Amino acid sequence: MNKIHQGKTFRERAREALKDDFMRQAVRKAVDTLETRKEEATDALGNWDQWREQGKRIREHAVENLDYYLSQLAANVRNNGGTVYFAPEAKDARQIILEIIKKHGGKHIVKSKSMVTEEIHLNKALIKEGLDVVETDLAEYILQLADEPPSHIVVPSIHKSRDQIAELFSNVAREKIPNDTPSLTAFSRKVLREKFLQADIGITGCNFAIADTGAISLVTNEGNARLTNSLPKVHIAVMGMERLVPSFADLEVLLTLLPRSATGQKLTSYISITNGPKKPEDLDGPDYFYLVILDNGRSRILADTEFRQSLHCIRCGACFNVCPVYRQVGGHSYGSVYGGPIGSVISAFLTNDMERYGGLAYASTLCAACSTVCAVKIPLHDLLLKLRHRYVTHKYTPAAERTVFKLWRTTFQNPKTYRLAIKMAQKAQSPLVNNGYIIKGPPPLSAWTNSRYFPKAAEKTFREQWQQQHH
Ligand code: SF4
Predict the structure, then answer these.
(1) 157: CA distance to ligand 1 center in Å?
(2) Average pLDDT over residues 352-370
């Protein structure tokens, strides 16, 4: 677990984040730009809703038939000369990858951006073994230097300024690197080029594996995944077990949705399709190809018919960009590798820790903006509401809150106690009311009134008004 993810609760981290004006402004500016570009790209494509519907159907079909497509994928990867491992847990995946590296005597490792390797905390495990590991995606390289986890699944260093990046790079260079974009990118290019040439192992994620051919696809804007999977002698790809499509025809639909939804691009600059190790007729490519397929809680989600849809996610990040909570508190506040609305849904299941992560269901206003933009139509707000229900059912909410809701239920179940409670509230509220609102309520009402106004109870109830008007 990274230092930013340790210890504190979502509320504590969010409270700190709300004081960080720079971060909030940077996040808002970046996600606004992404949103505008996305709207332009989807308008230009036309029939966006139908594309989303098609994407939803493809993901649904793949997830509903995951056992079949996983075994087809594994068989085809082996036919192509690759090796397949299934890793039930994060620790198994780390162990498998370490053993592959040791078998090939690997020392220098280049990685391209991969959320699934963040999920299994791979870098830390490799570095602990004395291996030289470098992230080659520019944003991930910045975060590696800063020892921070990503704060967005598509634009991981969205919260960093050019000044902060220049300082990180200057520390590596041991000289001042100017904070303009050309200087910063030129510096990282120079450093990373050397790392690519030196590397004996390349580790990538996998945007989508294609079951009927055993190929994997990688989508980047920097071309670093292509260098990672073709320059070193060994290529290890790590994928979440749900990240597959049946065929290239399905991939075409998802690659129409993903870049538009993620960054507002028609296509990313590079789409790499890898089909196992180098063949005799190939000019370049790795001598060895390994595919590590990770479960790590996905079977739990698959078995849970209420939450299974969350496995349809294609990690476009669009739900982050429109979420009013994410826009204010940024990605680190969630305390999970996966933040935003989708992270709030899946973190408790992936970690099997409802007590710690189930409360992320409350990191939402339930406005449904996430569901409205989701590239594959996952009803995220609905899943967040269901997760709240699970959280409450497990009794993880504070005891005082549970007591209040019990009283509330008892009161509402009986018309006499309800009317009595309303009368009492009308009387008790008067010293607290200002301009029609309760501004400073006593506990537990203060949890609400500390940050917003609570409307006062009406002088006359609806029943009283009705009776007056109709009798
Ligand atoms: S839940 Fe939907 S919008 Fe959010 S990242 Fe996944 S596919 Fe994109």
Answers:
(1) 19
(2) 96
